[in-house]
Amino acid sequence: MELWFTEKHTEHVKFSIQVDKQLYSGQSEFQRIDIFDSPEFGKFLTLDGYMMLTEKDEFIYHEMIVHVPMAVHPLAKRVLVIGGGDGGAVRELTRYLGIERIDLVEIDRQVVDVCRKYLPQTAGRLDDPRVSIHYEDGLKFVRAEENVYDLIIVDSTDPFGPGEGLFTKEFYGNCFKALKEDGLMVNQQESPFYPVDAIAMQRAHKRIVDSFPVSRVYQAHIPTYPSGHWLFGFASKKYHPTEDFDASAWMKLGLKTRYYNPKIHIGAFALPNYVKTLLEEVEPGR
Amino acid sequence: MELWFTEKHTEHVKFSIQVDKQLYSGQSEFQRIDIFDSPEFGKFLTLDGYMMLTEKDEFIYHEMIVHVPMAVHPLAKRVLVIGGGDGGAVRELTRYLGIERIDLVEIDRQVVDVCRKYLPQTAGRLDDPRVSIHYEDGLKFVRAEENVYDLIIVDSTDPFGPGEGLFTKEFYGNCFKALKEDGLMVNQQESPFYPVDAIAMQRAHKRIVDSFPVSRVYQAHIPTYPSGHWLFGFASKKYHPTEDFDASAWMKLGLKTRYYNPKIHIGAFALPNYVKTLLEEVEPGR
Amino acid sequence: MELWFTEKHTEHVKFSIQVDKQLYSGQSEFQRIDIFDSPEFGKFLTLDGYMMLTEKDEFIYHEMIVHVPMAVHPLAKRVLVIGGGDGGAVRELTRYLGIERIDLVEIDRQVVDVCRKYLPQTAGRLDDPRVSIHYEDGLKFVRAEENVYDLIIVDSTDPFGPGEGLFTKEFYGNCFKALKEDGLMVNQQESPFYPVDAIAMQRAHKRIVDSFPVSRVYQAHIPTYPSGHWLFGFASKKYHPTEDFDASAWMKLGLKTRYYNPKIHIGAFALPNYVKTLLEEVEPGR
Amino acid sequence: MELWFTEKHTEHVKFSIQVDKQLYSGQSEFQRIDIFDSPEFGKFLTLDGYMMLTEKDEFIYHEMIVHVPMAVHPLAKRVLVIGGGDGGAVRELTRYLGIERIDLVEIDRQVVDVCRKYLPQTAGRLDDPRVSIHYEDGLKFVRAEENVYDLIIVDSTDPFGPGEGLFTKEFYGNCFKALKEDGLMVNQQESPFYPVDAIAMQRAHKRIVDSFPVSRVYQAHIPTYPSGHWLFGFASKKYHPTEDFDASAWMKLGLKTRYYNPKIHIGAFALPNYVKTLLEEVEPGR
């Protein structure tokens, strides 16, 4: 069966995955949601035709968006995840016994329902008793919170459509306010390679730099995202992502990971020169 | 014009680049050689339909295959490049004034001729007076050399077709013999992500581990190679890739790079757990 | 959503249809069955990844496989349809009030069930009281019949897989035997354009010529089949397809059609020279 | 080498041909011109990325656009071909010894030059002494002529870009004027199947009906054109396309053809009902 899902990484670059079956297709209030099964990547989720995650490589994204901040913050107890209705970030968070409460704010209930049914690999820990799911706009949710969270994870879609508000200056300012005095925020921050993505990445970085005293960017190899070179933002009120990172403390937790490890933690912040240049272009005063 | 070059990264994954024009197509004694022009990646070279390099991202590959070993070996004077008829590795090497002689061994003269004509960006330094080009089989060339080189760069194609011999145990053993007592060898070593590539990577690693006392693997983000997560082997008689790396000495050289920098050097050797596991599977005794 | 169904018309030619949703996918005892919905062609059915019919152009195939023989045979009362589990040929047949009984022999019950559910446009007349469905191998079914049918319609898949037996000499011989003394057989007979299809078409023609005194080929424009130029075989014990065709009798029936009409009937038997040559190559003695 | 030329037949349908090599690519004053070599269709010509002809199936188009009118007009001596810089229509015309002069009006000299070099199969008879090539706008050329031609063949590209003027009412009116009192005009008239093409086809038909007393449409199976079902317009001052067709006279000429023959001539005017309906929609008064 020659059935192929194609994502245009740019107008001139296509990435195509052979599909065995389409397991689900629905239109929610916010977006089109599809689940496919594929011989190479297992099941995968798309929103409005954009790849969100595959069973084969989601571990990279979710480990890197969770363990990097958790290995820096020694005592994170209360965590907010915005977006991330697939449950992958929550799954990694629930492995930390020290976390007391996880608020998951996902605007689209249908995403959660679909992932519970078709992607237990990511959604399987959404029933952990520490997790509260809020079907709300993340932008509004965070506006109402102050000095509450140790860690905010912005696990958004791309900066257009439903995810657009999660890339605004107002949003980052509200996240700052919602964090405790030693709180951290991490966010998925697009790719540096293709120009359209790089511009979105720069814009997000500029806004975060303007909002937080500490702001760094780190990277991972995620084969199913455009260019395979994906960035995350690390913003902090107090802790430095590598200087305040206690590798041995994290190792003592005994968490088994498939991508993340303490050396990767340091290496992820070692950016190529061309990426550093892109970041510096929007860092006034540095 | 909807004209697309497609590379199957696996049987079930296609990466497609829109082509504006095919600038050259020829059949040499060894392989089919094509040069295309594309809106996203500029000109690119394929051999037997496999992507070799694009103008847009070749800097990543060539910087990483050259500057990593050159920043470890303090006094490399004589360098052998096997494969690499595009001239990109030679270009980076010629920037080191301490290098006295570069032997480039490329089996296919037509590759060099075509790259000189269509890809001056990579081939432009092949006329440096320190460079000698040998149109020979690299496997045979290196068999005849002993205790000659400070550095051997194995800039091969994939481990089938003309490049196959450059992945054999005999070849690595001859490289060992051709190196001086503190010599280094680096090689392109495929990707860890897709199973077929990972198996080739493991096989190469096993053979290098058997041949050299020091053998490590490092990585880079190369968007146009399968999965975007590409590996290099670092094999050495004496020097350790990170412990014997003198960052400040390299910085004093004042070389301007777009990907490589001393932090990337360290970070490139920080491998994800799943890659470490693949490597350890073929490292008996470790 | 960039989701495309592709059929390779040859190794070097692809025909791709954008899919909105996959409505059904199942594996029967005989083959994989899929139903897709598409913006251009509406719903379409594939078996083992090969296009069978689309809502948009199935009328051409089904009108041409039914009305051509029905307009030649003045008093057809008993009709056998072999294959055709989608019900499209039956639908056209049921419009003739003179037909008393239609036997539909479809090897794969699941095809019928799926078409009833998803393709009422073709399957909607399968419940006509004159229709009897037999879930059997057409080859075996016809072996047991003698001097029974006025018309046999061989509405098979391609000559490999489950449909293979319906292209054998034995099968055509049994059809001859199962027909009354003035009976007709029509069959779908592939395309003359691409070499692989043309060879299959010639092979079928040769076998039919060997089995029936009258054997002609006619054509239609079916855009979703390879090359768009599709052939049907017309085999007969007595009637000639154009000389015994009574246009005014057919017009009096008052059937409304979208493709077929009496001029098309004649025109369909006017074959291009290159097709005539292909046919004559396998017509010994002519 | 996975290199594919794709033509979008509609927004939702793609037809893709594997390319071995791009033999030529150039930008003329009017359009982009490309010649490709392909394993399935041999060499093919595209203008602005649209398929014009392939070596494998151009015979169908060129035979049908030439022999149909030539078999109707008993004594055509002077012929005008507008467009058709590939030379295929001229090639067929030169086979008629009764033709005394052929004016080929092609706006783009570069098309002729490229076809002479790369497509001798079609362009090989452009040097016939009866042929005069005029590198002019066909719309302007025909404006200046009156009562000159026995036959005008409008071998245009699609009704947008350089070919747009050849689908206007003014143009058809001028063709009428340029024809002798028993003159004929044939034109390529798009496809009836896909809605966008069908609308262009209807518009052209309406304008021709308004300009000529006799106006009919005929069809051919051309696999590399959208849907494979292609139409031609037959417009005439006096002769009827089938009633004034003298099959035996044409047969006596002894021309060897691969698609056209007298039965095809009649059959080509037998249109499917849905096509007749499309035509009648724009034929006021009928």
DSSP helix count of chain A?
A: 10
> How far is the N terminus from the C terminus of chain A?
54 Å
Question: Regions of chain A with pLDDT < 50 over 5+ consecutive residues?
Answer: none
Which bin fits the share of residues in helices of chain A? 25-40%
Look at the structure and name the CATH superfamily of the largest domain in chain A.
Vaccinia Virus protein VP39
Give the oligomeric state.
Answer: homotetramer
CATH architecture of the largest domain in chain A: 3-Layer(aba) Sandwich
Largest interface: A-B, 40 and 40 residues
Write the layout of secondary structure elements.
Four copies of one chain form a homotetramer.
Chain A: E1 3-10, E2 13-18, E3 21-27, E4 32-38, E5 42-47, E6 50-54, H1 58-72, E7 78-83, H2 88-93, E8 101-105, H3 109-118, H4 120-123, E9 131-134, H5 138-143, E10 149-155, H6 169-178, E11 179-188, H7 195-211, E12 214-221, E13 229-236, H8 247-252, H9 262-268, H10 273-280
Parallel strand pairs in A: 7-8, 7-10, 8-9, 10-11
Antiparallel strand pairs in A: 1-2, 3-4, 4-5, 5-6, 11-13, 12-13
Helix pairs in contact in A: 6-7
Descriptive overview:
The structure is a homotetramer of 286-residue chains. With 286 residues, chain A is an alpha/beta fold. Chain A folds into 2 domains: 4-54, Spermidine synthase, tetramerisation domain (Spermidine Synthase, Chain: A, domain 2, Roll), CATH 2.30.140.10; 58-280, Vaccinia Virus protein VP39 (Rossmann fold), CATH 3.40.50. Chain A is built from 10 helices and 13 strands. In chain A, the strands form 3 sheets. Chain A has a 7-stranded mixed sheet, sandwiched between helices. Chain A has a 4-stranded antiparallel sheet with strand order 3-4-5-6, with helices on one face. In chain A, strands 1-2 form a two-stranded antiparallel sheet. In chain A, β10, α6 and β11 form a beta-alpha-beta unit. The radius of gyration of chain A is 18 Å and the shape is globular. The termini of chain A are far apart. The interface between A and B is large, with 40 and 40 residues. β1 (3-10) of chain A pairs antiparallel with β1 (3-10) of chain C, so a sheet runs across the interface. Chains A, B, C, D: Belongs to the spermidine/spermine synthase family. Chains A, B, C, D: One of its GO terms (biological process) is spermidine biosynthetic process. Chains A, B, C, D: This is Polyamine aminopropyltransferase. Chains A, B, C, D: Homodimer or homotetramer. Chains A, B, C, D: S-methyl-5'-thioadenosine binds at residues 31, 106, 137-138, 162.
